[in-house]
Specification:
The structure holds two protein chains of two kinds.
Chain A: E1 3-10, E2 13-22, H1 27-38, E3 45-56, H2 58-73, E4 78-81, H3 85-93
Parallel strand pairs in A: 2-3, 3-4
Antiparallel strand pairs in A: 1-2
Helix pairs in contact in A: 1-2
Chain B: H1 15-30, H2 33-51, H3 64-72, H4 75-91, H5 93-96, H6 102-146, E1 153-154, E2 157-164, E3 175-182, E4 185-193, H7 197-217, H8 221-233, E5 245-253, E6 256-262, E7 268-270, E8 276-278, E9 298-301, E10 307-311, H9 313-316, H10 328-334, H11 340-355, E11 363-370
Antiparallel strand pairs in B: 1-2, 2-11, 3-4, 4-5, 5-6, 6-9, 7-8, 7-10, 10-11
The chains are: A alpha/beta, B alpha+beta.
Chain lengths: 112, 375
């Protein structure tokens, strides 16, 4: 499966837009992008815009946790935005929504 | 080739037992098949050679018989075929009067050379097969040491477990289960290590071991979860990843079900009426190893005859060729089988039918049924 990663820097935050499926084969790209963003002195916070992310497996979740840690070590915060209902439900079920700055309650809309 | 049988747990009679029975009859027949075919081939070549009066030109083909035998038969039988092929090659010179001519001798030499080579090949092949068989046996023993077979019956509960590894022959992976019986109370963990390979197997084994200890001494499941948190958090993190374990901890005590969910698929309760109910919590805690608060046990009830399925996401995420997930109605039908062991066999079969082969992720299943108590 394909994964697209687009990085856009806006002030002290970097916005990384992900599209496609995040799994064993593609997750490394996300981590690389986050580490690359943190290389810039100005960047503290990282926003992952996952509007076009359709699926994430357990390896992908592990990568997101690793990204969160990498950002936190630098004193910043990682935040997930625009979660599709499927992804939100997956992260909710894994108990990771709060850790990834995406709220705590399951706001999933009925499946389509 | 038939699909690999699952790791046998619990009652020890599953698809594996069934298929070995089915294979026993054709086995006796196929055992001599390679030899028969090779001999038949020699006869056919000889017949054609004599009938068509080709003056032993065809005898080079006789070398194919030992080669074929080497691929499927034992070294000794290959040697028998080789000897027959050589004899036939020499004898083929008789009717045409070619016996002893340079042409004939050269062709016989080819047959003899290939025949000797065939015996060597058969020996090398069977040696390798024997080593593979021994490896498979070692794997089975290792896996039994890592994932212990749960008792068939404990604390008023009947139990069965199955493990399907994505690495077909490995039989172990990053999924785990463990059952700890303590008089009239049963504590169970079913979990899934985030990650793959040997590191995941090692952590799964460590978590199961820690659970055995902690489940005995801790008064409630929340504390058991904290103990496991500490264990997993000490694990080294892989490059570009994180180490955590999703798990559900369950305590069965009479009619009471207590659960602590650490980011794991909810157990499924099948009522005797046939209805399925997911034992969800309002918000699952983080997986083991990521710190964070632990909410207290959720308490539910089950009646005699109800069944509780604890599972890993490998089952829920098993997809068919159209990327559709494993259907719940199928699961409902599987859980209606007469015994817990049969239920899991049915699930195993259904998953393979759905995926159309081996599943891509490990699947651990543990099924408990509340039996009528003797008191």
């Amino acid at each position: 499966m394909e994964l697209t990663v687009d990085t856009m820097q806006t002030g002290a935050a970097t916005r990384i837009r992900l599209g496609g499926e995040m799994d064993l084969a593609t997750s490394g790209l996300v981590h690389d992008a986050v580490i690359a963003a943190l290389a810039s002195e100005a960047v503290r916070d990282v926003i992952l815009d996952v509007a076009d992310l359709t699926f994430i497996d357990s390896t992908g979740m592990g990568t997101l946790v690793a990204c969160q840690r990498a950002v936190a070590v630098r004193g910043g915060a990682l935040r997930l935005e625009n979660l599709a209902p499927v992804v939100r439900r997956q992260l909710f079920a894994a108990g990771l929504l709060g850790l990834l700055g995406a709220g705590t309650e399951d706001q999933a809309a009925p499946s389509n | 080739m038939r699909p690999n049988p699952p790791v046998e747990r619990g009652e020890g009679r599953g698809p594996a037992a069934r298929s070995s029975v089915a294979d026993a009859a054709p086995d006796r027949w196929t055992r001599w098949l390679g030899m028969r075919l090779a001999m038949g081939f020699i006869a056919v070549v000889l017949l054609i050679d004599v009938a068509a009066a080709t003056h032993a030109v065809l005898i080079g083909f006789l070398a194919l018989a030992p080669l074929f035998a080497a691929a499927v038969e034992s070294p000794r039988r290959t040697a028998v075929v080789s000897a027959t092929a050589t004899t036939a090659a020499v004898g083929a010179g008789l009717p045409s009067g070619m016996l002893g001519s340079l042409d004939h001798l050269l062709r016989v030499a080819v047959v003899i050379t290939v025949s000797l080579m065939a015996v060597y090949v058969a020996r090398a092949r069977t040696g390798r097969e024997e080593r593979l068989r021994r490896m498979a046996e070692i794997v089975r023993i290792t896996q039994a040491a890592i994932l212990r077979e749960p008792p068939q019956y404990a604390a008023g509960v009947e139990l069965a477990a199955r493990y399907v590894s994505a690495y077909e022959e490995a039989g172990v992976g990053g999924d785990l289960y463990e059952v700890v019986a303590d008089q009239d109370r049963l504590r169970i963990i079913v979990g899934d290590v985030c990650g793959k390979g040997l590191a995941a197997v090692r952590l799964a084994s460590a978590v199961a071991g820690a659970f055995r200890q902690s489940a005995i001494v801790r008064p409630d499941l929340t504390q058991v979860a904290r103990d496991l948190d500490d264990l997993v958090a000490r694990e080294p993190t892989p490059a570009r990843g994180a180490t955590f374990v999703t798990a559900v901890l369950v305590e069965l005590h009479g009619g009471e079900i207590r659960t602590v969910n650490c980011g794991h698929p909810a157990p499924i309760l099948r009522h005797r009426s046939g209805d399925l109910e997911e034992l969800t919590v309002s918000a699952p805690d983080r997986p083991l190893g990521l710190g964070g608060p632990r909410t207290s046990e959720k308490v539910g009830r089950w009646d005699v005859g109800d069944r509780l399925l604890m599972l890993t996401d490998g089952l829920l995420e098993a997809r068919d060729s159209d990327r559709r997930f494993f259907p719940m109605p199928t699961l409902r039908a599987c859980l209606a089988e007469p015994s817990v062991g049969r239920c899991l066999d049915a699930v195993w079969d259904a998953v393979h039918r759905h995926v159309g082969g081996e599943p891509h992720d490990d699947i651990a299943l543990l099924l408990a049924e509340r039996s009528p108590t003797a008191q």
